[in-house]
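I would like you to sit down with the pair of lines that follows and say whether tokens and residues agree.
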Amino acid sequence: MRSLLRILTGIIAIMTVMPCALAQTQESVETYKFDIGGGIGMSGYLGDANESSLFAHPGVALNGSFRYLINTRWAIRGMLTAASLSGSTADMDNVLPEGRTYDFSSWVYDLGGRVEFNFFNYGIGESYKHLSRISPYLSLGLGLTMAATEGKNYAAMSLPMGFGVKYKLRPRVNLSLEFCMTKVFGDHIDSSELSDLYQIKSSFLKNTDWYSTLMLSISYEFGKRCVTCHRID
């Protein structure tokens, strides 16, 4: 009788624990379609007032982002970035006409979209998928850059090109460190005075304005994927 009671007690205990264990397993493999986050870091400028040292005059950079997580390798990311830029021709070896020196400071605001590619299957849990909590990645996109300097506003198309590393801190929390160079198809983010120092006119494809950001970001995933229906979402 005692042996039977022990067996029944063991069965009841297993039946009690199994739903909890299955729930925890289900939670660990849940995947999500979106994430939202923000970041902070430093900015740099390359252009007429700085032709070599990218972070000679470092500024501050901030961003907010929203991602659609296509799968473990690909994502589409919308971003709003703000960065302070500054430079001085006094740091340059070249002597400008009439020996003049130019200084500038400005803020740029970039709104755009990017495609991201993870080198590894990025995620946590589901070992049969060979997921990795850490992955390097590349990003490429298009944006609209607006600059505010000398009390004037300018706007031009831009091409952001980035690379970085992601780390899944928790099943729904991600950290990333990214360096991004942005080509601006315009020559006024460093003020109108610096757009024609050498009397060489700029064009849509030929100009000298770039800016960069080095950002540490955190994001949170939401929007559970369907795991019981028979469709791809």
Summary: The beta strands are 32-46, 59-69, 74-88, 103-118, 134-149, 152-170, 173-184, 210-224. Confidence is low (pLDDT under 50) at residues 14-28. Residues 35 and 102 are 42 Å apart (CA to CA).
